[in-house]
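Section handout 9: paired folding examples.
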Amino acid sequence: CFRDMSSFPETKAEKYVNKIKGKKFLQYNRLQLSRIYPKGQRLDSSNYDPLPMWICGSQLVALNFQTPDKPMQMNQALFMSGGQSGFALQPANMRDDIFDPFDKNTLRGMVPLSISIEILGARHLPKNGRGIVCPFVEVEVSGADYDNTKQKTEMVVDNGLNPAWTPKTFQFHVSNPDFAFLRFVVYEEDMFSDQNFLAQATFLVKGLKAGYRAVPLKNNYTEDLELASLLVKIDIIPLIENGEINPFAASPFRDRSADSPNQLLAGRAREGSLEARYQQPFEDFRTSQEQLSEHFDNRDRRFLRKTRVNGDNRL
């Protein structure tokens, strides 16, 4: 009954959010509301990983909001998609009867993505005790078990004002982009080679946009850090088109010199369709500007004719 809610401590919920019982728990949550809350032994108010509970359909996953950690940062990113209303619609694939949260072969109608990211630079990174920081960036995809992965840049020595990194492409293949997060976490390495947190930014993968992007950085509590940002380049390519694997998308940077003319034309057509999708807003804006300019020109001409007819040419 949708009017009843069952509450589970995290220790009990963890017995259901696994490969053996995950699908049954998801089916249970289609008929029953469930609430997950932290176990009482968390005396430090730390948080558990909410992702397995979310992907198994739990409607209310309670966290310790006073603790600034990765689970809370993902929670903030998830509910940003709902305009911070406190609600987020479950992805359509979670309402599919054959969907298994821990089996990517049950993803029907889902287009996997190949995401290429280059970390180019940063500016105005916060200081952490010392006057000068040695930053590096960790890029992580968090989602279903089969999508979890992380990579990191090299360390830049003694530059927190405007560090720049040697261009290096980080490649991520995301099978379930509807329920995956992309995280940028900036650390500094001290003289003892210990990692100290500086800043972070967390986003839903399905909300990403391709191109050169300035990523505003936030602190542990997901509050904006003044002027702090990363400069990144993002390429997003669907791995499947029209039910077939797209050979041009599996590795967007591969050498195509050996391709046949027909393959090259097909690849350019696909790339053109993706490029057109991202360029369309700019074309719409340019068209609106032209229409607005034409409107004001017509208005000025009518005003000029009117003043001349009245014999009052004050222009």
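Moving on to protein 2 of 2.
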Amino acid sequence: MAFAPGIDREDKESSVTVEMLYRELSSGGGSGDIESPTDLLGDVSDALFPGEAVELDESVVKGNLDAVLLALVATQDHNTHGKGLMETLATAFGAEFSPGTVYPSLHDLEEDGCLETRELVRTKEYAVDDADLSRERVAAAARQHLLLGAFLQEVAGDL
């Protein structure tokens, strides 16, 4: 029974399985070799949906903005200020957000203890403050999407 193109319940060497994704989430994440968000998103899309051009809806990114921002701050060693993060959102996800959308999320993540700020001359740069808390929030969002995606794909196959 297929959950998505290239994702089977059977453990095939050439495809990514739901179980593989779940094990990856349960083990705490990836390889530790973090690449650019754009490259990483492209690699994941290619692995999950070979030969298909799959893009995220801006509304999906906006609905998960806190987790996406945490992931971006964790994977970038520069441009972790608001404007740089908005540029990365546009480049990697095709999502054009206003400062009125991004900055309140960054401030909330700072208040929650996930992010800390470093004051620069004319801006603030963000960094992960509590890695465990941030990791759990990102992993929880990933689990939610994996479950919902598997459910929707299963139903789509029956329609």
